[in-house]
Amino acid sequence: TYCTPEIGSVGLSEARAREQGYDVKVGKFPLSANGKASIIGARHGFIKIVAEKKYDEVLGVHMIGAHVTELIAEGGLALSHEATAESMMRTVHAHPTLYEAIGEAAHEGTEADPLHHTGDEQPPSGNARRRSHSGFSRRARTVRMSMGPRMGSA
Predict the structure, then answer these.
(1) Is 116 a catalytic site residue?
(2) Predicted TM-score (pTM) of this structure
(3) Which residues, including other chains, have CB under 8 Å from residue 99's CB and lie 6 or more apart?
(4) Is the pLDDT of residue 148 over 80?
């Protein structure tokens, strides 16, 4: 929907998925924690991914915020290809972009903890992985280390 803020939605909502008998998990990421949203002054909104808990299949992707009508295509692709929240999490999302908020929502749904925080959120509960002194989950640190040295580093 082209309005301010924009709205993009594809697939089942969380409520509709539950009505249809799915056991769902949800990953939601606020644009207030996204670097590009801060840069362009568009920190209002969120990305939400609804997935089936057992097989992790994406059932719906919902967005409210600046430029989300350009971002919703990844949700459509995820649904048409029966993607999982984990496969969306592992997709490369460049930084700083609004687009990376999709990966953050998928990470929050898969790992129960996004990589970036605004500092305003409540700490994750229950099944969230413990964070190290670096602020990254053990799995995220392993992925970062396996990617090798950063460009420009000695």
Answers:
(1) no
(2) 0.74
(3) 71, 74, 93
(4) no
